[in-house]
Fold:
Amino acid sequence: MIPRSMCIILAVMLLPTGIACASQPDSASSPTPAPAPTSPAPLADDARVVAESAPMAQAPGAGQAATTRSRAEAQTAPAEEPAEATPPETDESPQDVQQLIYTGSVILAIYDVDDTQQRVVELVESMDGYISERTSEKLTARVPAASFRDAMDDIAELGDVLDTAWQAQDVTEEVRDLEIRLRNALELRDRLEVLLEDAETVEEALAIESELERITLEIERIRGQLDSFEHRIAYSTIDVEFRAKRMDEVPDDEFLLPFSWLQQLGLESLLRSPEVHR
Amino acid sequence: MNRRVLWLSLIFSLVGVAAAGCATFEVETPSEMVAVEEANREYVAMTHRGVVVRSRVYAQGDGANEVPRAEHDFWVEAMRERMRTAGGYALLTETDVTSRDGHRGTRLEFGRDHDGRPYQYWLTLFVTEDNIHVIDTGGPEERFDEARDAVESALNSYTVLR
Structure:
């Protein structure tokens, strides 16, 4: 007969494997799309709160189904859904909304840099954004995602644009994956706490506490990653640089004529020319 | 004695004519400037505060030391892109200009910061059958503004000979 303590230890070690196999996304975990918040909008907080308060599963094997039902019951419904509604179908869940991180760059000619930078700062702040980094040659602006396109267009009006680029990074899968992992980790932590209370030996308690410590660190790490995604989705990044395009960065479709007289144009050559002739 | 003087005068006259015939342009140095170089194909003048006006004339043709022939607008485009992309200069204005002798040209006015200080840099281009005339001028913005009248006087006096 297997000792009780051995059963508990085996259960503790097998729980992460069993729960990690859960593949049913749940409506409660759906991240709220970030429209145009004036301040960073909490993303998936509802899911996290719901997951933390979910009733405990009865047994490891039935944990997945029970968790799904209990989470759905405890869900704080969004405005468009009645509070006592049955769990929405997976294909209607908000988590299917794309989570996009927008980043852009604008390279301006090197003229009136201080004044132009100041105007960029004022423009960004008028859009409820902020400047995260500023040097003499570059500043990094964070603007609400809904204002990203307008911000790019408005910044381009502030100087002679040498180059501009932007991209949208789809992080929907990454966010979804993190929220599933967080939900599973929270459930595991809850179960471990119950097991800890029922531990009959020091050996059992130590094993459970060790696992609790590990899972707590995992929860904090996942939360940190979700916070980072949340902020990057809510606030788009625009790099504004003042520089010349370096020769080795010239795109393939640009061609600079190989004539020395063209290369000799410019202030440096001009202002040194009296020295050359004396 | 008189014959010797006559021969010397003739020789010097011929030399002068030959020299004048090699000149590609003429320009008048304003009183606010000093010319530090005056040659057939190059001219440099400056103010006492370092604002410089320079003219260089490049031969167009098929020779080894000649620039391939191209239209005026092509060279204007080449200069514009050279200054903006590789140089990081901001194009402020682009205007049609005329030399003193009525030759059509283009002036590009640029701005650029160096070490946090704004500078002005102007490029004027005239293209003839045989040559490309490139006149550039510039300096720190506040000094350039002080010398603007002198600069424009020099530019307006520019005569394309060939």
